[in-house]
């Protein structure tokens, strides 16, 4: 049986049965001649450098598996879906006209154009609705900071949307974190709530000792009583309870 030769992977396959070890050498020589003939049949003249050029066949005899996993398709962000709907073109002109310098500027210098506009408009006219005692330039700086924070929030939302995390999941994580913080605060107060401030209390095997400031311990006061006073107090409470029955 003739061997199968694939020019795309440069592989040859022979599934014929070899009866004895003595036939291995003769079979290898025969297959080598067959491979050389297949390689000669792929010659397609010479290239511009004078080297022999080979033309690969379209048929693929071997389906070799991938080395790595097929990458998962990423979800489009809100901006990408909006751009696809509006059929916006990515290839825009690289130049923008600047009114201040009265010339053409690169698109990546758009931020510098805004700075030039702000520097050019150094006089601010008050409107009837504006506050006279408020600095307009400070207000503009605050508005810029707010815009930056909003933009960061939008970027985070887009990342969560791309990863498949909803806003409900984020709220759930925040609630769980708040519960954990409350539990840690309760554990701190519970560990120092006894008369010995937790020094002689029983603890679990994996219970960690929480760090508490000395001021929190000093605020707690313990009233010193004798055994007789405690017995009297307990008898009074018992009599009050029994009378109410």
Automatic annotation (TrEMBL):
Keywords: Coiled coil, Nucleus, Ribosome biogenesis. GO terms for biological process: ribosome biogenesis. It comes from the Eukaryota. Residues 139-193 form a coiled coil. The keyword Nucleus applies. Pfam families: RRS1 (PF04939). The keyword Nucleus applies. It is found in: Nucleus. One of its GO terms (cellular component) is nucleus. Belongs to the RRS1 family. Involved in ribosomal large subunit assembly. This is Ribosome biogenesis regulatory protein. It comes from Plasmodium inui San Antonio 1.
């Amino acid at each position: 049986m003739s061997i199968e030769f694939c020019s795309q992977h440069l592989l040859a396959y022979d599934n014929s049965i070899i009866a004895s070890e003595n036939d291995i050498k003769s079979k290898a020589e025969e297959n080598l001649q067959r491979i050389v003939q297949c390689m000669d049949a792929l010659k397609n003249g010479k290239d511009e450098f004078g080297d022999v050029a080979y033309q690969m066949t379209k048929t693929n005899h071997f389906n070799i598996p991938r080395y790595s996993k097929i990458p998962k398709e990423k979800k489009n962000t809100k901006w990408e879906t909006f751009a696809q709907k509006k059929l916006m073109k990515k290839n825009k002109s690289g130049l923008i006209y600047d009114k201040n310098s009265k010339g053409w500027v690169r698109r990546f210098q758009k931020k510098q154009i805004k700075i030039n506009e702000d520097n050019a408009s150094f006089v601010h006219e008050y409107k009837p609705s504006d506050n006279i005692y408020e600095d307009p330039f400070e207000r503009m700086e605050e508005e810029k900071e707010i815009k930056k924070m909003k933009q960061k929030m939008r970027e985070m939302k887009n990342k969560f949307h791309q990863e498949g995390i909803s806003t409900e999941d984020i709220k759930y994580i925040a609630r769980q974190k708040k519960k954990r913080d409350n539990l840690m605060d309760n554990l701190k107060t519970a560990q120092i709530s006894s008369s010995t401030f937790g020094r002689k209390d029983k603890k679990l095997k994996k219970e960690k000792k929480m760090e508490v400031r000395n001021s929190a311990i000093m605020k707690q006061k313990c009233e010193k009583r004798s055994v007789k006073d405690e017995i009297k107090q307990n008898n009074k409470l018992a009599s009050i309870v029994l009378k109410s029955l």
